[in-house]
Amino acid sequence: MVKEVVLQPNERVDDLLTHGLHIIQSREVFSFSMDAVLLARFAGVPLQGKVLDLCTGNGVIPLLLSTRTQAQIDAVEIQPRLADMARRSVELNELQHRIHIHEEDLREYFANNGYQVYDALTINPPYLPGHTGDKNDNEHYAMARHELNGSLDEIVAACAKLVRTGGRVSMVHRPSRFVEIVETMRKYRMEPKRVRFVHPHADAEANIVLIEAVRDGKPDVKILPPLIVYNEERQYHEEIYRIYYGDKRP
Fold first, then answer.
1. Which tens digits make up the pLDDT trace of 29-75?
2. Where in the sequence is the domain holding 46, given as residue range(s)?
3. pTM for this one?
4. Residue 215: CB partners within 8 Å, gap ≥ 6?
5. How many other C-beta atoms are found inside a 10 Å radius of the C-beta of residue 246?
6. What are the Cα distances from residue 185, in Å, to 119, 216, 223?
7. Within a domain: residue 4?
8. Average per-residue pLDDT in the chain?
9. Domain at 122, CATH number
10. Span 118-137, mean pLDDT?
11. Which CA distances in Å does 196 have to 77, 140, 162, 210, 211?
12. Spatial distance between the Cα atoms of 165 and 216, rounded to a whole number of angstroms
């Protein structure tokens, strides 16, 4: 039975299919996408310790990570409405003892929480530079898609302040910024170790890249096999099915 929580106007409760979890969403703000689900599966996280999710949105990544680790999970979101939705989703799943939502600017989060205190960090940041492209009139969508509250450099710098030496930082982003991401990570002493490109079809260009870096690691990167989303029948490939549904097929 799902615990009852107060929903605001135009909110709904959706299932996170494989794990019996639930999440509060709304059409008025940016809902989670495949990018977040893939990052939550790709990221290297310890069985115990401390994990941090930046740009958490409505909290989907911490919820999914809670099925893979017993670590304490902190999550940071700058938008008050999304932080509130994330907090209520945590309560909905009765995970308050393991997941803590912080409504803060990720660039300042270290000031109150310490340097290099996390064993692993995940981040699904805005993909577009703040000065490019048409911005959505909906401020929630604009902030989710454009770097209006921190450039890529500022975001990676914040990661470097928060993750311990030897800790892992896992990011999902657009392949068009892959070189920039690697250069910026190395600038802040985070060495990319695992990279996986995601393609909508076998014959299509990648539209998602997953990158995992280690703080103060030595150069040695592995390019993993590509992840293909759809087969020729436009159905999910087997690996995508397993990520989304486990043994529960729709």
1. 878 889 999 999 999 999 999 999 999 999 999 999 999 999 999 99
2. 11-245
3. 0.90
4. 116, 160, 163, 164, 165, 166, 167, 168, 169, 189, 190
5. 11
6. 17, 10, 17
7. no
8. 90
9. 3.40.50.150
10. 76
11. 26, 29, 24, 5, 7
12. 6
